[in-house]
Specification:
InterPro entries: His_Pase_superF_clade-1, His_PPase_superfam, PG/BPGM_mutase_AS, PGM_Phosphatase. This is Histidine phosphatase family protein. Pfam families: His_Phos_1. The protein is α/β, with parallel strands linked by helices. It has a single domain, classed as Phosphoglycerate mutase-like (Rossmann fold, 3-Layer(aba) Sandwich). Helix content is about 30%, strand content about 20%. The chain has six helices and seven strands. Helix 2 packs across helix 3 and helix 5 packs across helix 6.
Length: about 200
């Protein structure tokens, strides 16, 4: 039986607004971030998309986003879908980060952070376990930009297109899940509810 996973990036945070590195560290949602989460909530309501289970990263910005989207319904927090840990770069200005996706592979491990492969592995393992749970037919999970990127990288199956590297806050990823395989259906920008693929 085909199942459905909706994965959402958290809303805009104070550190997003200030241009600070935000992986393992956290900051609160801004007024815009709250509004973005409300737009996602309204989208699901308008499309009559109902969920049987809810999951979020253990980080406050993700759980706050989920609580707004679901109007406070019960949910489960998962450490495995947290954002990448950037080690000593946490809380620093993003302008200090080296440029280019290659630096995210192993660069931050020398500063106490994570490598990309570890983030990818924990995301795939956790979301596969969630979707293999028998009573989980339509699931909503809230995570983070980097974590979502590495999850996508693992399951990407379109050789004609490049995976986007940066996603808008509260971007909505929709997947079919069947026979232990995720199939990306679309990525929506919450400000316009149009595809960014």
């Amino acid at each position: 039986m085909r199942k459905k996973l909706y994965l959402v990036r958290h809303g805009e945070t104070l550190f997003n607004k200030l241009g600070k590195v935000q992986g393992a560290c956290d900051s609160p949602l801004t007024a815009k971030g709250i509004q973005q989460a409300e737009q996602v909530r309204d989208y699901f309501k308008e499309k009559q998309i109902d969920f049987d289970h809810f999951y979020t990263s253990t980080q406050e910005r993700a759980s706050d986003t989920l609580e707004i989207i679901t109007n406070g319904k019960p949910y489960t927090r998962l450490k495995e879908i947290k954002e990448m840990n950037f080690g000593l770069y946490e809380g620093e200005q993003t302008s200090l980060q080296p440029k280019g996706p290659d630096y995210f592979e192993t660069f931050y491990t020398q500063f106490g952070g994570e490598c990309a492969q570890d983030v990818e592995g924990r995301m795939v393992e956790a979301l596969t376990k969630v979707m293999n749970t028998p009573d989980h037919q339509q699931v909503l999970a809230v995570s983070h930009n980097g974590a979502c990127f590495y999850f996508l990288r693992k399951i990407w199956n379109d050789p004609k297109k490049e995976i986007p590297i940066h996603f808008p806050n509260c971007a909505i990823f929709s997947f079919d899940y069947y026979d232990n395989t995720f199939l990306l259906l679309d990525i929506l920008d919450p400000s316009t509810m149009t595809s960014i693929l």
